[in-house]
Amino acid sequence: MNGWINIYKPKGYTSTYCLNVIKAKFKLKKIGHAGTLDPLAEGVLPIAIGEATKSIPYLAEAKKNYLFEVFWGEETNTLDSEGTTTKVSEIIPSIEEINKVLNLFIGQIDQVPPKFSAKKINGKRCYDLARNNEEFELKPQKVIIFNLRVVSHYANKTSFLVSCGSGTYVRSLARDLAYALNTFGHASKILRSRYSHFSKKNTLTMDFLVKNVEKEDFYKYLLDIRKVLIHIPSIKLEDERIKLIKNGMKVSMLEEFGEVNIKSLIAQNQSQVLAFGELKSGFFYPKRILNI
Fold first, then answer.
1. 25, 194, 225, 266: most buried by Cβ count inside 10 Å?
2. Coil, strand, or helix at residue 60?
3. pLDDT tens, residue by residue, 258-278
């Protein structure tokens, strides 16, 4: 059984918990998810089954959309509503002031991840260091914001819709928006509404899967690997190169592409994905070979 499934992660549960419930319910050996959602967050959680787990890194390149709410005037140690208040301000920005700073966050920006995050320092998770009140600093990282706009504004809360690339922390974005407005703030709600091909309207709830889907019917809800990775170029092969790729050997694609470089390329036959790899000077180097 190989493919992807589009889950709606409920608020209050970790992504790993949802993964383990599905793994146990349907007795799956290989399972993984793309794009961890914080316990506070809810929404789209793409889960890969079987050989589809090898395609997880390639989904990370895709855009993600989040609806999130900023609560103005209070910053917390976790940058969300589950943390303790660390900084306060009486400044509550107006809708006009907010709209004026949005362009500062469009494009490639520097963003410092939250201290309560899964980032590692010297092999230790940052959230463990933070819980133990250990002092440490995280360096800014480059992230891409494609679009950011206000959805609603009421009193001391503003809702936003953001489209962003991999590695973006919505909690950090909430904090930095507040800083740009000379105040403090935290993310009081986070909902991922889209992750590449996966959208909120097509999700399956954990409750539905656990209560209504039997093991023998689970495959009916799986999405094909190639359809999920529609943002990555591919080539269909019908010759002896198929066997070479399955054996992990580089093959020439000079006739099809010329001496070009393509960072991510999918090699497939007429019915299924063979491998994910990279094209260098017209030669395909398989990186992840699927045993399907």
1. 225
2. coil
3. 999 999 999 998 878 999 999
